Amino acid sequence: MGSYAVKEMFLTLQGEGMQVGRRAVFLRFSGCNLWTGREQDRATADCRFCDTDFVGMDGDNGARYRNADALADKVVELWGALSDPFVVMTGGEPLLQVDDALIAAFKARGVETAIETNGTQAAPDGIDWICVSPKAGTEIVLRRGNELKLVWPQAGIDPRDMTGWAFDHFLLQPMDGPDLIDTREAAIAYVLDHPQWRLSTQTHKVVGIR
After folding, report:
1. Does the annotation place 48 within a ligand binding site?
2. Is residue 32 marked as binding?
3. Where is the Radical SAM core domain (predicted)?
4. Which of 20, 42, 85, 146 has its Cβ near the most Cβ atoms within 10 Å?
């Protein structure tokens, strides 16, 4: 890939999953293969509950980066003078853009890499932490990684169908929205009955960070 379209990029703390609370540069790529990002298309999208703006390149440090080195340099700049830089690549769907060249550029700078993906695209080798968040009705090709994070409940998707996938951690995350109390209760009840799974919450929304 010759260039990379980035919606926004900023220093924060990881708010979800097994690495919650960890200092990270969040690198949000523009675009997704399951929804255009336009509200008028939500009802017919493959993913209808997304709560993220991933359209365009107008957020903090949003831009089209001309090559992998330019993008990796910006991540290191945002991390600052501290050691052990860590980037979380998200979207949208980051695997529409993340490629071997970008992973190599991060590795050359000593950056630890994580990705949050819907699992419908293959991942390049060398990513240090892979989190897959499946969406109902889509073909999941990435069934191996560190963390499976299922937003719950979703009509047409059964966690029992995923327990044999090759992940280190299985997380159930209550779907945000007007029915959050009900979805939280459903997720808690499921985890209590299925201890292979662990409850994941969106702590960044609780403490008020991005």
Report:
1. no
2. yes
3. 19-210
4. 85
Which residues are catalytic, by number? Answer: 26, 32, 47, 50-52, 116, 204
Assigned domain for 178 exists: yes
Give the pLDDT confidence score for residue 177 in this predicted structure. Answer: 86
| 154 labelled binding-site residue | no
CATH number of the domain bearing residue 123: 3.20.20.70
According to the 3-state scheme, what is the secondary structure of the chain? CCCEEEEEEEEEECCCHHHCCCEEEEEEECCCCCCCCCHHHHHHCCCCCCCCCCCCCCCCCCEEECCHHHHHHHHHHHHCCCCCCEEEEECCCHHHCCCHHHHHHHHHCCCEEEEEECCCCCCCCCCCEEEECCCCCCCCCCCEEEEEEEEECCCCCCHHHHCCCEEEEEEEEECCCCCHHHHHHHHHHHHHHCCCEEECCCHHHHHCCC
Confirm whether residue 1 is marked as ligand binding.
no
Range of 180's domain?
Answer: 4-205
Looking at the 3D structure of the chain, how many domains does it have? Answer: 1
Task: Write down the mean pLDDT value for the chain.
Answer: 96
